[in-house]
Specification:
46% of the residues lie in helices and 16% in strands. The relative contact order is 0.18.
């Protein structure tokens, strides 16, 4: 189903790109360049992005950022290919799916945001002595098949000798947005959750984090900024400025305590509880989920390919050099 969706999206490109691409990355007249960023979801997992905005790092580079949630990998990639956004913040696996279709204008990964999976294994009861083998035979409420969270989760399970199909009562027919509610209402003995829901459940006594899929699946380019190759070529200066601002934000988040980072990102999370936000940021910082620079490492890329291959979602190996451009990231790191 995923690949049919990508083919359908690709058919739209020829018609939409001419209609929608006008005005992208243009100078507003005062020297400021506007970039439209589509984020796959609004998440504390992307704290450095909100820090770059709140601390004025993009503004100091002469950039105006129009940030718009695009709600899902398929929708983000369709928006990027059609030209309704200039840059997508989304899982790098989406660029691989497009490349495997033989795109004339491939989507290029140019700056990394997160370097681990962002989900956690949550149990109904505290399990101080949790062992992965405890999952065998359990009812497991997982993520959507073919999505990066599920692929990373299955990779971690297999590493610990667990066959997701044979050793678990695996539930995957619950929509992403409804997974927390399903677990809270009694579905499953274990669930794979993103933050802040994992921390909220712990605060409520609904569930307890017993393991991190991010730690278990290793480093990989989990969430990456990407754009069409042709658009990058036409706007190199803007992309350099964007990447430089991002790097400053990554270094800032790395150096600041979690509560200070929480204050910086709270304006982007209405009604969020600062205690929960701080706990989430601290947890992600402790397991080094936030990349400390925008470089997309080749070893991490290869780990991503291994995870996708293990999940049966990779038609062919996609070389790092084919759709990764680290030139902006490398330059941004220079003093």
């Amino acid at each position: 189903m995923r690949q049919v969706g990508w083919r359908a999206a690709s058919l739209l490109v020829g018609v939409l790109i001419v209609l929608l691409a006008a005005g992208c990355g243009k100078d507003s007249g005062d020297g400021t360049v506007k970039l439209r960023i589509g984020e796959v979801t609004r998440s504390l997992f992307y704290a450095p992005q909100y820090a770059a905005l709140s601390q004025g790092f993009f503004e100091e580079e002469g950039l105006e950022i129009d940030l718009q949630p695009t709600y899902g990998g398929d929708k983000t990639m369709t928006a990027l290919l059609s030209g309704s956004i200039d840059i997508g913040l989304v899982g790098s696996e989406t660029s691989i799916y497009v490349y495997q279709q033989g795109a004339d204008d491939p989507v290029i990964n140019f700056a990394q945001m997160t370097q681990t999976d962002g989900t956690f294994l949550v149990a109904r009861e505290p399990e101080v002595d949790f062992q992965w083998e405890d999952l065998k035979g359990a009812v497991f409420l997982g993520q959507r098949k073919g999505g990066m969270p599920q692929m990373a989760g299955e990779f971690a399970l297999k590493k610990h000798g667990i066959d997701p199909a044979a050793d678990l009562q695996l539930i995957q027919n619950v929509d992403f947005a409804n997974i927390p509610a399903a677990f809270a209402s009694g579905t499953g003995e274990y669930v794979q959750l993103f933050e802040p829901q994992a921390s909220i459940f712990e605060q409520e006594g609904t569930g307890y984090v017993v393991a991190s899929f991010g730690v278990e699946s290793g480093n990989l380019p989990y969430t990456v900024y990407m754009a069409r190759e042709s658009f990058i070529a036409e706007n190199k200066e803007a992309f350099q400025k964007f990447t430089r601002a991002l790097y400053r934000a990554q270094q800032w988040v790395e150096s600041q305590p979690a509560d200070v980072v929480a204050d910086a990102v709270l304006p982007y999370f209405e009604d969020a509880d600062k205690e929960i936000v701080t706990r989430v940021i601290e947890r992600y910082k402790e397991q080094h989920s936030y990349a400390v620079d925008p470089v997309i490492d080749e070893a991490e890329w290869n780990n991503l390919l291994d995870i996708m291959e293990s999940a049966g979602e990779l038609n062919s190996m996609t070389p790092h050099a084919a759709i990764v451009d680290n030139s902006f990231a490398e330059l941004a790191k220079r003093p």
